[in-house]
Design a protein that fits this description.
TetR/AcrR family transcriptional regulator (chains A, B); transcription cis-regulatory region binding (chains A, B); HTH_TetR (chains A, B); homodimer; DNA-binding transcription factor activity (chains A, B)
Chain lengths: ~240, ~240
């Protein structure tokens, strides 16, 4: 994060004018980082990690290559930041739902709708996350840079663990059948919500503007697949 | 397909000795093609299309690069053959189920179990098919070669259409709820069965030998998600 130069003054709160300047600089900086991450996810999703380039990301932004290299020394570093930023963002929204005091099945339904909606709204980001999980991006990198991606596995596991806990909680509260392999069910559950990642660009274009409706259909399919009764489904999806 | 040389003799059935020779040559040829396709699917799945090379496929086989180039002029041609051969094979098995005289829900259950089982048994092939569907492989190819991949889209659509028809048939026979968007349901249904493609290599390794059991769990999840009643599920999954 860039700071206003201290210019020999004692440390502490900068004078009012400088403080605002730093805040504006910081906000502009964040906005530009966000634009880079969005454009990079698009390029990674369209071309795959191996074929994508920082040049192309800069072209998509209408910025110079140097402006992007100023922040990311390599394509691997940019890929890792796209994935980490995206995973942290959706994980914090997921955890906010998981920590509520509602029944587990209600929180699971909202979590499923959140995930499916995010996949439809930010398909490029989720395709990029899927490539990170598959290991093909790491295979295309020199060993040192591949290590930078290894932390993503733990983030992804933490994310999926929230779904597994909600499924187990709903089974404890008898809103889902008991005695199931909740870990396996969680894996199937999240992958079913990821369904749009397998759809062609033409299919997705045809569904533009219907994201909310489709997210609910995906969540309904997954909650029903996990074993919710018709009475539970009616209650959860009437809200 | 190579043939024994005709050596000036009239056309027609070759003499017995030559006939056997040609048959053996043909069978060896097919076996070698199959070995190439299997190794190529593994390399494409591990590294992604853009980073994979014919060299690596040859190394995996313990064959020379020339032996592979003798059959495939380019990586794009090899990729297209892996996908087309794989899709034709599973489509013919799917159609054999779809054409039976059982109730649609029974055929749908078997089709779902077939697909999930094949994804678990030939994960590398299905990852390669997913890359073909996503369009990233075509983005990495020169335009002329990318055209060679465009036929795969139609094959994939035909495959998914079989599931959509079975879902519609099961709704007509009242084994699934009526009045649903069967095309959307079909897309979610097949993607849910593809769940293992999103699982990490470590997860898949831990499930080795349990393919049949997991295929049934996936099929159960998808059939239930599509709306089958508990009575229908009990009947279909007690076989």
């Amino acid at each position: 994060m860039p700071r206003a130069p201290a210019s020999g003054k004692p440390r502490g709160r900068p004078p009012r004018g400088e403080r605002n300047f730093a805040a504006i600089r910081g906000a502009e900086d964040m906005a530009f980082r966000r634009r880079i991450l969005t454009a990079a996810a698009e390029i990674f999703a369209e071309r795959g990690f191996a074929t994508a380039s920082i040049d192309e990301v800069a072209r998509r932004l209408g910025a110079t290559k140097g402006l992007v290299y100023h922040r990311y020394r390599s394509k691997g570093e940019l890929f890792a930041d796209v994935c980490e930023d995206g995973l942290r963002d959706i994980t914090s929204r997921l955890e906010a739902i998981a920590e509520r005091r509602d029944r587990a099945i209600t929180r699971l339904t909202e979590a499923a709708t959140l995930h499916a909606g995010d996949v439809l709204a930010r398909t490029a980001l989720h395709r990029t996350l899927a490539e990170a999980a598959s290991g093909t991006a790491a295979a295309a990198l020199p060993e040192m840079e591949a290590d930078a991606l290894s932390g993503l596995g733990a983030l992804r596991e933490r994310y999926e663990a929230v779904f597994v806990e909600l499924i187990a909680g709903a089974a404890d509260q008898r809103d889902l059948p008991a005695g199931r392999d909740t870990e396996m069910l969680g894996r199937i559950f999240v992958a079913a919500l990821d369904a749009p990642l397998a759809w062609s660009p033409a299919t997705l274009a045809g569904l533009a503007g219907k994201g909310g409706l489709i997210a609910r259909q995906l969540a309904y399919f997954a909650i029903r697949g996990a074993g919710a009764s018709d009475a539970t489904l009616a209650e959860e999806f009437s809200r």
